[in-house]
Amino acid sequence: MKTVTLHGRRFERSINHGEIVKAVEELAEKINVELAGLENPLFVGVLNGSFMFAAELLKNIEFPCEVTFMRMNSYTGTSSSGTVENIMGLKESIEGRNVIILEDIVESGRTLDAVSGRMKDHGASSVNFAAMFFKPSLYKGTANNFYRAMEIPNDFVVGFGLDYNGLGRNLKDVYSLKE
Ligand code: IMP
Ligand code: MG
């Protein structure tokens, strides 16, 4: 079993890179079919966690699109802090745009609601949301038609963009915390 130790805590490999890439390709195929008709679509990656997912997904998107990034954060350590803070706004105007938000993982759904809400406040014509990972057992949100590449158990994970207090984002596989 491959393991990594980050800030003194041990994580075991739970999803390998090949499975992740395959799941992202399948999601991209679905988005290519379902969202191809959007006029002037704008993908917005939520930093920092979505950078690898955004890169992998967008390589497989076949319709013309713009890509940008914004920063939000609601997580400290291994649990959601409950408040979603907007750290860095967007430079692009959202008014009248068809926005597709890219996020690393949906847990409670608070970030999904907050970012989607912000896009609507700024006058987006439509808001779609795509996450790399979804933990259905912790979800308390109301949106159930958002895109996701993989559903995963209720474990704290790092890798493929996801971090534990800043470490682990660079890992190509995903690792789960072992107590
Ligand atoms: P939510 O707002 O509760 O849905 O949490 C979503 C945010 O929490 C994500 O954007 C991640 O930054 C972070 N997060 C949730 N689960 C994990 C995890 O297992 N590992 C690392 N970060 C996570
Ligand atoms: Mg995040």
How does this model look, in words?
The mean pLDDT is 91. Strand 1 (3-6) and strand 2 (9-15) form a beta hairpin. The chain has helices at 17-34, 51-58, 110-121; strands at residues 3-6, 9-15, 41-47, 66-76, 79-88, 98-106, 126-134, 147-151, 157-158, 174-178. By secondary structure, it is α/β, with parallel strands linked by helices. The strands form 2 sheets. It has a 6-stranded mixed sheet with strand order 5-4-3-6-7-8, sandwiched between helices. It has a 4-stranded antiparallel sheet with strand order 1-2-10-9. Helix 1 packs across helix 2. The protein is globular, with a radius of gyration of 16 Å. The structure holds inosinic acid and magnesium ion. The site of magnesium ion has 3 residues, from loops.
Low-confidence stretches: none
Mean pLDDT: 91
Distance between the termini: 15 Å
Q: Beta-strand percentage?
A: 35-45%
Largest beta-sheet details: 6 strands, mixed
Q: What is the quaternary state of this protein? A: single chain
Hetero ligands? inosinic acid, magnesium ion
Question: What is the helix content?
Answer: 10-25%
The best one-word shape is globular
Number of helices: 3
> What Rg, in angstroms, do the CA atoms define?
16 Å
DSSP, total strands: 10
Strand neighbour order, sheet with most strands = 5-4-3-6-7-8
Structural class call reads alpha/beta
What's the SSE pattern? EEHEHEEEHEEEE
Task: Break the fold down into its secondary structure elements and pairings.
Elements: E1 3-6, E2 9-15, H1 17-34, E3 41-47, H2 51-58, E4 66-76, E5 79-88, E6 98-106, H3 110-121, E7 126-134, E8 147-151, E9 157-158, E10 174-178
Parallel strand pairs: 3-4, 3-6, 6-7, 7-8
Antiparallel strand pairs: 1-2, 2-10, 4-5, 9-10
Helix pairs in contact: 1-2
